[in-house]
Write a structure and sequence with these properties.
Helix 2 crosses helix 3 and helix 8 packs antiparallel against helix 10. The longest helix is centred in the C-terminal third of the chain and has 49 residues. This protein has three domains: 100 residues, no CATH class; 101 residues, Type II secretion system (T2SS), domain F (Receptor-associated Protein, Up-down Bundle), CATH 1.20.81; 73 residues. The termini are far apart. The protein has ten helices and no strands. It is an all-alpha fold and 282 residues long.
């Protein structure tokens, strides 16, 4: 009976190991395929065309190397495993940040581009000619997107659909306003020059306000950091200058109560500032 029990236990452990191995292998392969596909798609949308055949092996090698280095420095297997697995999540965050930065640069180019379109239309040029001139004279990323709009138009896609594709690729409020105005203006056949110039002024004022809000938000974040770090630095300085007095604060009930109150007020201040910044950002 003991042999049968040991055999059953061995079979159970083997089946459990096989099941866990199968699940982890499947999850690993799915994440690898989805990461490669997302990276290729998002880089292509940003007009970055590179060979990604070595992307996953290099990423795994980097994760293993950093995990091994952390293990040598900290002698912690758990921390090294977290670092190694964390490296695998960095590309998605980097791609998302790059997309946001590219969209922001494109939005900053829109007012000048709209004024160039308005000037060309007022001079009697056609809308396609104005887009072609802007795509040739401006810098990326707006020149890349407008060149793609023109190429789509040349292969037979209607201009309204090409502008709508532009809006879908760069999903920002500014691009949505511009493409909506251009589509309506092209369909109606009216004079676009004044409307485009007015939209350029509106977008410029809106961007100025957004920059001001970002500046105030950054200032509020720095204030939160200073408020949070300053009491800790002050506590360290007081411990160094007057250790006897700080010993009373750390060893007596009244001193501990004051320290607990200070910590509670710190946490309350951080929570309140985060709520204010969240309302400003919204």
């Amino acid at each position: 009976m003991r042999i049968v029990g040991v055999a059953l236990a061995g079979v159970s452990i083997s089946l459990l190991f096989w099941l866990v191995h199968r699940i982890l292998t499947s999850a690993w392969c799915k994440y690898r395929d989805s990461l490669n596909a997302d990276a290729e798609t998002q880089l292509a949308e940003m007009f970055v065309f590179i060979d990604l055949s070595l992307f996953w092996p290099l990423l795994v090698a980097l994760g293993v190397s950093l995990g091994f280095l952390v293990w040598l420095l900290s002698d912690s297997v758990a921390l090294s495993a977290v670092v190694a697995l964390g490296v695998l999540t960095v590309p998605r965050a980097a791609l998302a940040k790059a997309r946001v930065a590219r969209a922001t640069r494109l939005d900053r180019q829109l007012p000048d581009a709209l004024r160039m379109i308005a000037g060309s239309l007022a001079a009697g040029a056609s809308f396609s000619s104005a887009l072609n001139a802007i795509a040739r004279d401006l810098y990326p990323p707006l020149s890349q997107e407008l060149s793609l709009v023109l190429r789509e138009q040349r292969v037979g896609i209607p201009l309204q659909d090409a502008l709508n594709n532009f809006r879908l690729r760069v999903d920002t409020d500014s691009v949505a306003q511009v493409t909506t105005l251009l589509r309506v203006g092209v369909e109606s056949g009216g004079s676009l020059s004044a409307l485009v110039d007015r939209l350029a002024s509106s977008l410029e004022a809106q961007q100025h306000m957004e920059l001001k809000v970002d500046m105030l938000t950054t200032q509020g974040k720095m204030q939160a950091v200073v408020i949070g770090v300053l009491p800790v630095l002050l506590l360290v300085v007081l411990c160094w200058i007057d250790s006897a007095a700080m010993h009373l604060a750390l060893s007596t009930n009244a001193g501990r109560a004051v320290l607990v109150l200070i910590v509670m007020l710190e946490v309350l201040g951080v929570v309140w500032l985060r709520a204010v910044l969240r309302e400003i950002s919204a």
